[in-house]
Fold this sequence. Notes:
This protein has helices at residues 3-6, 9-30, 56-73, 116-131, 138-141, 158-183, 185-209, 217-244, 254-286, 292-298, 300-347, and strands at residues 41-49, 79-84, 104-111, 144-152. By secondary structure, it is α+β, with helices and mostly antiparallel strands.
Amino acid sequence: MSNKRLNLLPVWAAISAVIIIAGIVLMALLGFNDSLDRPESKNFDVYYNVVVDLSEERKATLEGYCEDAFAAQGIAYEEKTTLSGQTDPVSQNQSSFTGTGNDFVLRYTFSADVSDEALAAAKAAVEASIGGNQEFSPDYNGAETSVSYYTLDLQAMNEPVWRGAIAVAVGAIVALIYVAIRFGMGCALTGLVACVNDAFLTLSVFAIARIPVYTFAPMLYAAIAAVASAVFWLIRCMKLREDAKDPAAGTFSAEESVANACAATDKPVWLAAGLTLAVIAVCAACTAVTGAAAVFAGALIPVAAGLYSSMLLAPSLHVKVKAHFDKLKKKHVRYEGKKKGAKADVQS
């Protein structure tokens, strides 16, 4: 890292301040774009266990039975979806099924304020219509048909995401305590500022860019940013400690010490960031068919924030912090020297 970057602390601080202040204003006014949250709703499912593919005519017949029953009860659905190649749900409160075969699910989604009584009456009507049609009888082609309705709870992912945010934040705190014990208060203070900056920077990016998230996902991303920042800074701290053991280190200024450490650890930091991003990308790809993919994809932003801080803000800040602590250390050494000299004079 060039010394020029280390001398641009006001620039990096100003960039962070502008983004964070704008983010705080938007968070206060608009909050986050929590469009990934699914509101509480009620699903009405018609499950058909077919031996062969269900014909379009029979699908249309099932739809007609359902929609006639809804009209009779005076209720209107918000969304209609069909799922093929599915298996009968093990739990009726699941929002999606997985499996193989020719199974068919016709699903209607209603708002949460639709009464269970109306859905129960519609269910009875659909079952009666199906029972009166020989083509849907198990004796006709070995297939079985079932009708069910259930409530999909509000924001089912909130609790696990919130717990995850707490766990990750605790990890960042533990990392900073370790830095303070192992590498000194100067390194810990720099790491603390970087972690806080990256957490708020991440929240601000989500607020400004209006990136869709789950309600509590921003807290998780802020915690991830703090951990990424702490890990990247820990790599720098290990090199700073190693260089401090060199007898020649006493002749280096704070700026030279930080520049040397950064030059030696730039590649490891980039490698750590690259590996983290690769793991996130793989996790997102593996969960592409579920809502978790969006959670993993959003984690790219806090890692990028931690990388920015590690490369620019934290090193330039640590030049100031290290210079201050080095000055205090020299004063302490001089004070101890004078104290020992005065004690020797008294003894003589």
